[in-house]
Amino acid sequence: MLEDAGFDEIVIGPAVDTFGGAGGESKARLFEVFGYPFIARKSRS
Amino acid sequence: MATEVLVNPDQLRGEVKKKYRDVAVKPHDAYHFHTGRPLAKRLGYDDQVVGALPDAAVESFAGVANPFSLRRLAPGERVVDLGSGAGFDCFIAAAQVGREGRVVGIDMTPEMLAKSRASAADMGLANVEFRDGLIEHMPVDDGWADVVISNGVINLCADKRQVFGEIMRVLKPGGRLQFADIANGKPVPESAVKNVDLWTA
Fold it and tell me: Are B64 and B44 in contact (CB under 8 A)?
């Protein structure tokens, strides 16, 4: 979706266990939900 | 760019507002996600930077990862934070861009806006402001921002292509989007995706 929107130089950082130990942990585990940092550049053209 | 929006955007927005109103006014209640200083520590934010912030600026933080972990903001940059909540990431950003930079937080929840504005005033920050608005239609001029940040918000929008289109509009050519969000490794059934109640559960 980022590429479709016109971004390049897309980098995805390491997964974070955002929901571990929280009330939503079981649902997060069910669908392998993690948090991630992303960075992308708007093309100059 | 045609795309299917699987839930009613207004209904979803109403549920999100309700949830984050609670997080603003009752930050120490139990939620399905972590909040506040323990969450900031879990996500790898700098202890010293977070420790210097007043409780009101941190306690309602409900991000999902650290949008500053892949790139530190540069002094003088203009930054827009999508769904700025009680202002936590804006205050981190304000320290990184310094007095020559500017940070604009956008949020749709009145209780969050009141809290972030009060914290900014308490801290005497002149380079941060908070605007009432939707990230699908941002109150920001075309090409104003060097950087757009966000934390755990884009996943709560029904029409993500509209959001990314708005981000492209407000960014300068060559500008950066650095955000944090959740992603699932296993597919979520369409019946669940269409159930608005599950988006904020």
Answer: no
B68, burial (CB in 10 Å: exposed 0-12, middle 13-18, buried 19+): buried
Q: What is the CATH number of the domain that holds B124?
A: 3.40.50.150
Tell me which of A38, A41, A44 to substitute to probe the interface with B (most B C-beta atoms closer than 10 Å): A38
Structure-token pair, residue B65: 């990862």
Interface test with A, best of B45, B156, B167 (most A CBs within 10 A): B167
Domain-located, residue B175: yes
Instruction: Please report how the helices B110-123 and B88-97 are oriented relative to each other, as an axis angle in degrees rounded to 10.
Output: 40
What ipTM was predicted for this assembly?
0.94
B179 chain-A contacts, CB cut-off 8 A: 37-38
HSE (side-chain half, CA atoms, 13 Å) at B82:
31
Contact of A22 with chain B, judged by CB distance below 8 Å, is answered with yes
Report the domain count for chain B.
Answer: 1
Gap between the Cα atoms of B90 and B102, Å rounded = 10
Q: Which domain holds residue B156?
A: 9-199
pLDDT in tens, B113-165: 999 999 999 999 999 999 999 999 999 999 999 999 999 999 999 899 999 99
